[in-house]
Amino acid sequence: KHTGNRVHGWPRGECLGGSSAINYQMFSHPSKQDLDNWAELGNKGWNWDELVPYFRKFEKYNPLSEKVGHVFNHEYIDPLLRGTNGPIQISFSENDANFLQEVWPGTCKRAGYPEPRDPRSGSALGGFNQLTTVDPKTVTRSYSASAYYAPNAERSDLFVLTDAVVSKIVFDRDRPTSPTLTATGVEFTVDGQTYSIKASKEVLLCAGAIQSPQVLELSGIGARSVLEKHNIEVMIENPGVGENLQDHAAVPMCW
C-alpha cells in the first residue's frame, strides 16, 4: 500500500546456490537488537551473541593492501571480529578505495548520523562502506554453490537432484491425536513424475524467505483459513507462517 498498490517483481535464484547466485553481493549485517528481538519473542538460540560464532565460521575476510586500503582496513573493519578461514570470501574492491568512498562516511557523521563502526559490532546503522562477497584472488562471486557445493560435489554421501519441485514434507504423528509431528520424508515432482522419499535422520527445510513458508503451508502447517481455502489438511495451525514478510529497500545512486 505504501507504493501505490503496485506489484513488485522479486527475482529468485532457481539454480545451485539459490538467490546467493543472483544477489547484489553486498555483505550486510543485521543490528544486534534485531536478533535479540527474535530471542525475546521466544526463539531460543537466535540472539546476537549465539549467532556471532556462525557469522565468523562461514566467512573469510580478505583485507585490502595497505597501500590502497589503510582506511578501509582499520576504520571500517575490526579484523578481530571477522572470520579468517570460512568458505565465503568477503572483501572490498580495490576500486572502492577512492576519495569518494573515504569521505562520505565522515559526511554522514557530521550530518548527525551514528558514527560508523564495523557492523559486526552489532551496530548496523550509520554511514559505512559495504563489504562484498567477492573472492579477490579470482575476482568472482563467492556464494553457496562455489563455497559449499563445489568442494564437496564428489562426496559419495551427497546427491543433488536438479529440476525438482518439492510438493510437501511428509509427516508422521506419534498418535492420531498427538500435537507432535515428525518429519519422515519429502514428496517432490521431477519430469512430471511425483516421488516420495523417506529420511533416515532428518529433513532440513532451506528454501528461502518465500519458498520455505510456502512448503510449510503445502505440508499443512500455517493459518487454518489459508490451508482450508486450498483444501490442505491442517497438521499444525500456525497463523504466523507466511505472514508479515517485510523486504528491505535499496536505493542506488549513480553519478
Automatic annotation (TrEMBL):
The record's listing under InterPro entries reads: FAD/NAD-bd_sf, Glucose_Oxidase_domain_2, GMC_OxRdtase, GMC_OxRdtase_N
Quote the protein name from its UniProt record. Answer: Glucose-methanol-choline oxidoreductase N-terminal domain-containing protein
Look up keyword Oxidoreductase and say if it applies. yes
Superkingdom, taxonomy of origin: Eukaryota
Species, as recorded: Cryomyces antarcticus
Q: Which residues form the Glucose-methanol-choline oxidoreductase N-terminal domain?
A: 208-222
Q: Which residues form the signal peptide?
A: none
Q: Tell me any Pfam family this protein matches.
A: GMC_oxred_N
Read off the PROSITE patterns from this record.
GMC_OXRED_2
The family annotation for this protein states:
Belongs to the GMC oxidoreductase family.
Q: Which cofactor does it need?
A: FAD
Which key words tag this protein in UniProt? FAD, Flavoprotein, Oxidoreductase
Tell me the Gene3D superfamilies matching this sequence. Answer: FAD/NAD(P)-binding domain, Glucose Oxidase, domain 2, Glucose Oxidase, domain 3
